[in-house]
Amino acid sequence: KAGVTQTPRYLIKTRGQQVTLSCSPISGHRSVSWYQQTPGQGLQFLFEYFSETQRNKGNFPGRFSGRQFSNSRSEMNVSTLELGDSALYLCASGLGNRYNEQFFGPGTRLTVL
Amino acid sequence: EDKVVQSPLSLVVHEGDTVTLNCSYEVTNFRSLLWYKQEKKAPTFLFMLTSSGIEKKSGRLSSILDKKELFSILNITATQTGDSAVYLCAVVFRTGNQFYFGTGTSLTVIP
Question: CB contact, 8 Å: A99 with chain B?
Answer without folding.
Answer: yes
